[in-house]
Write a structure and sequence with these properties.
This protein is an alpha/beta fold. Among the domains are: 115 residues, 2-Layer Sandwich (Nucleotidyltransferase, domain 5), CATH 3.30.420; 136 residues; 118 residues, Dna Ligase, domain 1 (2-Layer Sandwich), CATH 3.30.1490; 67 residues, no CATH class. It has 17 helices and 35 strands. Strand 7 and strand 8 form a beta hairpin. The two termini are 49 Å apart.
């Protein structure tokens, strides 16, 4: 039997989605923060056992492992990356500090200055100067460069970022500086801006390169260790890694730019959401993913979630590589509830997987959101949790809420638990409002798609506060990001700078740049086991009006199979310019036809089709009320009252549940709040509608 496996590592659980001939198998295991690869191997061993095979035989039949990870995100959140130094052009030492203004949101008076991944003492300059046309104005002063490198060496720098002015037009000085660094510091990691992000503006390129250098060692160390363990266990193919752009590519491709795995875990969920939007004929979705540690929000419009280029602020750092739009909040099942200065706060600190919430019985002592859910009867002590990995316990939960929350607030234990849920829900709802308002979207026009282990427990009440009347919960929601990773196409998305007026552009130069990108992409696709015939290549140009800082991407030609650049001609520029005017009017509401736009560079997106999971569609016409398997007291906003409990495995298409009700699946709990109904559609997914 042939298998394809999606893996998504979270702060609390590591999720698995195994695609095989007769369906999909979902599984979870507790993450191992000290070495995430251990949780991966533990989960693989359990999957092999379920399939009746040894781990070696099982891995030999796995055609592809697609991996999304939060290792890069956690490094930025915890600020525990490599000791990083920056070498830049003389006079540009403070590029990172000047940014595009002191802080990314100038209207937020409470927002303090960010913590810089490279302090000023490790930001050093070298005399040199390349001009915008690529010509050398001042040669690299190698003696001064060596002196700066030795200063970094004395500061025990582990990773060096090199970002010189206009290196995207001519990288000769950056490449020579890298050689000098290797001579003086042979063991450090090196990131070149001309490789990480070869385009303007200067701050975007420098920021992206510095973050790449900061994350690089930890991401590379983890992926190398995982690859080694997989090979030792019997996996003979290349590891495919989810990218922040929503595509996947080989570990080898990402070796020089590990920053592309930033937010790769949430990106898998967004890819899956776009598939659901198409299958369910609900093209506009608000996607919320609540796991054990974080809460991720994204929007799918027209069944599409294209990667955004340029203005991507992530953990307060600007990242210039293509990224699917996701806003992350420190809110999950493991978020710790605490009273500070008389105010109840929930998150962003999380109990994680070790020790985890108190109810896990693994040594936790601080109350969390999961403990509050247990206190309110949404979860039940003694029940199997996470697919039977362990049982929940009430031991110590009520006492912790009494001592740490109820007593300081002078309220009951039940009120302490309920108010904890109100606070975390308010935090999540505000995150949704920020994202949708920033995109000019009214949440009421969307359908809410909830996934993650905890997302379905909050989905309906969040939707109600946002004015959304329909919620979709896929049966695969607990490991939805892992399943979404299996739906992601192998993709390479790169660009090269070319600064010239559109009327003065040289077709030969464009062809050369596209051919360079095309040949590079083809080499990686072939190494990943694909043929040239499998590739679809989209050729694009970045254009802007004179004086603008940011360019718009204009599609030029899409070609399947063999490389064919015959479309590049003098006549091409008239079509491209008109396409830019239309795109600018659609994006900004106006066009300036009297101005000749300038080309900022070329871009290429290469992808290949793969076997994807099936996301079911349709609703059944036949409906009947489902009978609860039992009841228990639960507080769903109206105090502790007897509430129907439904076992997900017993529910069939057409079954309906009128709230209040609680549906228990193997890895998640779906709450049907008062005023809501839930129906199981033909695909086995849940559709929640607000009554009235």
């Amino acid at each position: 039997m042939a298998y394809r496996l999606g893996i998504d590592i979270g702060g609390t659980f590591t999720d698995f989605a195994l695609l095989k001939d007769d369906g999909v198998v979902l599984d979870k295991t507790l993450s191992t923060p000290r070495d995430h690869s251990l949780a991966v191997m533990d989960g693989l061993a359990k999957l092999a056992e379920c399939e009746g095979r040894t781990l070696g035989d099982f891995l030999a039949e796995v055609e592809a492992i697609v991996h999304g990870t939060t290792v890069a995100d956690n490094t930025l959140i915890q600020m525990n990356g490599a000791v990083t130094g920056l070498l830049t052009t003389e006079g540009f030492r403070d590029e990172l500090e000047l940014r595009r203004g002191f802080k990314e949101d100038i209207w937020d008076v409470r927002l303090s200055a960010p913590d810089f991944v490279v302090p000023r003492r490790r930001r050093l300059t070298v005399p040199e100067r390349i001009l915008s046309d690529g010509s050398i104005f001042k040669a690299l002063d190698e003696a001064a460069a060596r002196k700066a490198i030795r200063r970094l060496k004395l500061q025990n720098v582990e990773s060096v970022a090199i970002s010189l002015l206009f290196s995207f037009a001519n990288s000769i000085h950056e490449r020579r500086l890298a050689e000098l660094v290797r001579e003086e510091m042979p063991d450090v990691a090196i990131s070149l801006s001309s490789e990480v992000l070869p385009r303007a503006p200067e701050f975007d390129r420098t920021s992206t390169t510095v973050v790449n250098a900061y994350l690089g060692p930890s991401v590379s160390h983890y992926l190398d260790r995982l690859e080694d363990r997989l090979k030792e266990a019997g996996y003979g193919r290349q590891l495919l890694v989810m990218q922040s752009s929503g595509g996947v590519m080989t570990r080898e491709y990402l070796r020089g730019s590990p920053i592309r795995v930033l937010a790769s875990g949430p990106a898998g969920g967004v890819v899956g959401a776009a598939c659901v939007a198409e299958a369910k004929h609900s093209p506009d979705l608000l996607c919320v993913d609540m796991g054990g540690t974080s809460y991720d929000v994204s929007v799918v419009i027209g069944a599409s979630a294209p990667a955004e280029v340029g203005w991507n602020w992530h953990h307060r750092n600007l990242i210039g590589v293509p990224m699917v739009g996701v806003e992350t909040l420190g809110a999950g099942g493991g978020s710790i509830c605490v009273v500070k200065n008389g105010t109840l706060e929930v998150g962003p600190e999380s109990a994680g997987a070790d020790p985890g919430p108190i109810c896990y019985g693994r040594g936790g002592t601080r109350p969390t959101v999961t403990d509050a859910i247990l206190m309110l009867g949404i979860l039940e002590a003694g029940s199997e949790f996470a697919g039977g990995r362990f049982e929940l316990t009430r031991d110590g939960v009520a006492e912790a809420f009494q001592e740490q929350i109820a007593a300081p607030l002078n309220c009951s234990v039940e009120a302490a638990a309920f108010n904890s849920l109100r606070v975390v829900n308010a935090n999540m709802t505000q995150a949704v409002r920020r994202m949708t308002a920033g995109k000019g979207i009214d949440p009421k026009s969307l359908t809410l798609l909830a996934y993650g282990g905890n997302g379905p427990a909050f989905a309906a009440i969040q939707a109600e506060e946002l004015g959304i009347r329909r919620v979709l919960v896929p049966r695969s929601s607990p490991t939805f990001s892992a399943l979404g990773a299996l739906a992601a196409k192998p993709t390479i998305d790169e660009e090269r700078a070319y600064l010239v007026s559109a009327t003065a552009a040289d077709p030969g130069k464009l062809s050369d740049l596209w051919r360079e990108l095309d040949e590079r992409a083809e080499a990686y696709f072939i190494a990943a086991g694909f043929k040239r015939d499998d590739m679809t290549v989209l050729y694009q140009i970045n254009l802007r009006y004179p004086g603008q800082n940011f360019a718009l991407v204009v599609d030029v030609e899409e070609i399947e199979g063999a490389r064919d650049l015959s479309f590049v001609s003098d006549e091409l520029f008239e079509e491209v310019v008109e396409g830019f005017h239309r795109e600018h009017e659609a994006s900004y509401g106006h066009r300036r036809e009297e101005e000749v736009p300038e080309i900022a560079g070329v871009r290429l997106q290469a992808s290949a089709e793969i076997t994807r999971p099936i996301f079911g569609e349709g609703f059944t016409a036949k409906q009947e009320a489902a009978l609860p398997g039992g009841t228990r007291k639960a507080n769903l906003g109206r105090g502790l009252v007897e509430t129907g409990i439904y076992r997900g495995a017993d529910l069939k298409p057409g079954h309906t549940i009128c709230g209040p009700g609680i549906i228990e699946e193997s890895f998640t709990t779906i709450v049907v709040y008062p005023g809501w109904t839930a129906m199981i559609d033909d695909a086995g997914d849940y559709v929640l509608d607000q009554k009235g």
